[in-house]
Amino acid sequence: DFLFFWGAVFLVTTTLVALFKKENKELIPAKEETKGITDTYRLLFSIIKMPAVLTFCLLILTSKVGFSAADAVTGLKLVEEGVPKEHLALLAVPMVPLQIILPLVISKYTAGPQPLNTFYKAMPFRLLLGLEFAFLVWWAPKVKHEGGFPVYYYAVVVLSYALHQITLYSMYVAIMAFNAKVSDPLIGGTYMTLLNTVSNLGGNWPSTVALWLVDPLTVKECAGAQGHACGTAEAAEV
Q1: Which residues span the membrane (predicted)?
Q2: b or e along 1-18 (b: 16 or more beta carbons within 10 Å of the residue's beta carbon)?
């Protein structure tokens, strides 16, 4: 029902835009961006070859490695420790207004000549919150009782997630502001898309690797089967 409702909203709004929104024909671009797919990829290749762009791409492709495990695995580990999935889902509700307000607040600090300063300042705090998330996972079985988890544990989780959202959005808005600032207006769409795609990749590949490494790096002990290791999934099943 949720997906059907928002699917209908998307269809209606995009149809209304197509019907009623007209292009401004008075404003003629100084130069046509591209003439086809081949030209677009040639243009992208020429952009990525620039030393400054290459350095920046390497930066944003590796900048999120430090907190990828905490971001990708914390929720799964909390569920593994017994925190109900529906409770974790409910904890996301207070984050919604925060997610709406944060970009508005942060954009004031990223609108200046050096938007990446916000990115650099937020990074150490986000790294520290990775340790905080590790503590939450370690703490979960300590405070668990027959009735579930105490209210103060959920309060700490909500506060931790709220602080995490502040650092996450500070970095996200800063990168978007920087990409918009450095993109050449003549090829703005292509330039922005390239930088934003690299930025998205920089967040996705470390999380994928972190999830893939969880099982091999998890230390397991076999209960009631002395002399047998549980290093592999097959051995653990036996």
Answers
A1: 6-22, 43-67, 87-106, 118-139, 151-175
A2: eeeeeeeeeeeeeeeeee
pLDDT tens for 59-118 read: 999 999 999 999 999 999 999 888 999 988 888 888 889 888 988 889 888 888 888 999
Asked if 44 contacts 194 with a C-beta cutoff of 8 angstroms, the reply is yes
> Which position has the token pair 């904890």?
91
Whole-prediction pTM value? 0.77
Rounded to an integer, what is the distance from CA 32 to the centroid of its chain? 33
CA atoms of 53 and 59, how far apart (whole Å): 10
Handedness of CA 18, 19, 21, 26 (dihedral sign): positive
Listed residue (162, 182, 65, 206) closest to 123, CA to CA: 65
Residues in the chain: 238
Tell me the one-letter amino acid at 106.
Answer: I
Residue of 167, 175, 221, 230 lying closest to 200 (CA atoms): 175
82 Rama class: left (phi>0) / alpha (psi -120 to 50) / beta: left
Taking the CB of residue 189, how many other CB atoms lie within 10 A of it?
11
- The per-residue pLDDT for range 177-225, each reduced to its tens digit, is 998 888 877 776 788 888 889 999 999 999 999 999 988 888 777 777 6
CA-angle at 23, arms to 181 and 47, nearest 5°: 35
Q: Tokens 């400054």 label which residue?
A: 52
Taking the C-alpha atoms of residue 219 and residue 222, their distance in angstroms, rounded to an integer, is 10
Distance CA(79)–CA(103), nearest Å, equals 30
Alpha-carbon torsion angle 11, 12, 15, 19, nearest 10 = 180
